[in-house]
Amino acid sequence: MRLAARANSVTGSKTSGTRNKAEALRAQGVEIVNFAAGELDLAPPAEVLRALHAAADSDTHRYTDTAGLPALREALAERISRLSGVSYGPAEVIVTTGAKHGLHLAALALLDPGDEALVPNPGWGTFAAQIRIAGGEPVAVETSDTGFVPDVDRLEALRTDRTRMLVLNTPNNPTGTVCPPEQLARIAAWAVAHRVWIVFDECYGELVLPGVTHAHPAALVPEARQLTVGIGSFSKSFAVTGWRAGHVHGPRALIDVLKNLQSHTASHATSVVQHALLPAARGELDGFTAQARDILAHRHARVAEALATVDHIRPAATPEGAFYYFLDVREVLGRKVGGVPVPDTDTLTGVLMEQAHIAVTPGTAFGAEGFVRLSYAIAEDRIAAGLRSLREVMSGVE
Ligand code: PLP
């Protein structure tokens, strides 16, 4: 079978291996605590569900404008302007079928074959995959020794005349860290000086701990506005991951290109979903995200307390946003857990599933051997039970 080179340039998501193993154990009656989820366990806001039903009952089943419903773009423009402190108009916003598709369109619009894109490592694997699909070359920027935030000297050392874009994801998946505004300003100034696009993934931007500031590059360095592609999502803030609804903001000329690309690929986000998300975009459901932040802050504290009692494993950083803890497990590697040799992180996650009955995501899914990602987007009693069994299993490390 002859396929395009592109077909072999990416592999499927690594997280599905964890999911399959958990399913197999569940089928045997084993209860697994799922610390691998990339989504909130909360039900979507009732108003969103009501709006979905109302949309389904009205005449909203036809194609929409490829950039999204005008009312939704308008509401999003206002919302993005309010949250970022940078003014965006409706023509500078496009609704996409999830942030993921928005990122894909951005990579297609920005990269020519052979162009380089700087991608912080560890990082969400989809960034590098999409850059490859677009014909570009992802260039890893190691951040594990710089607080999981790119260092400007390092960016400069990796910059070539083919560097077109830098991915910045804050709050970060998988580390939960938030880029401090001073550092974001330095990065934005560097990008402006060298005409490098900033693909700014702020899907978790509304999920930060109390007192933590999530800043926008263009709010700190106004000249960065012309080079910033902001990527947002309804998935995480409103617990509707399955609806596939995200958005992109940026300079109008770029948004027009994304609109053209979307018109030939997805066409547009699902019509009823767009209607249902109007109240969310208008800010009428900000109480829900405030409540989600509160719940996550409690869970974050529970995880911190419980982890402090676990041997051999420690947080690699203190997360300030999203719902992830990135754990340093290097001390366990090369040893035995419950009598089983654990040479690497992937083996460890398998052993934790079998012995502690918990699912965590190996850091290798994010380019980082020696770390695992623990999602606390699950109920507190599940968190407590899962971390109790982790402590027990870790006390048996030889
Ligand atoms: N960006 C990051 C950093 C993510 O972690 C995710 C989902 O896990 C996405 C984008 C995708 O969001 P969406 O569901 O809107 O496609």
Automatic annotation (TrEMBL):
Residues 8-19 have a biased composition (Polar residues). The keyword Ion transport does not apply. Residues 31-382 form the Aminotransferase class I/classII large domain. Its cofactor is pyridoxal 5'-phosphate. Its EC number is 2.6.1.-. Residues 1-21 are annotated as: Disordered. GO terms for molecular function: pyridoxal phosphate binding; transaminase activity. Pfam families: Aminotran_1_2. SUPFAM superfamilies: PLP-dependent transferases. GO terms for biological process: amino acid metabolic process. It comes from the Bacteria. Signal peptide: none annotated. Keywords: Aminotransferase, Pyridoxal phosphate, Transferase. PROSITE patterns: AA_TRANSFER_CLASS_1. The keyword Repeat does not apply. PANTHER family: ASPARTATE AMINOTRANSFERASE (PTHR46383). Belongs to the class-I pyridoxal-phosphate-dependent aminotransferase family. This is Aminotransferase.
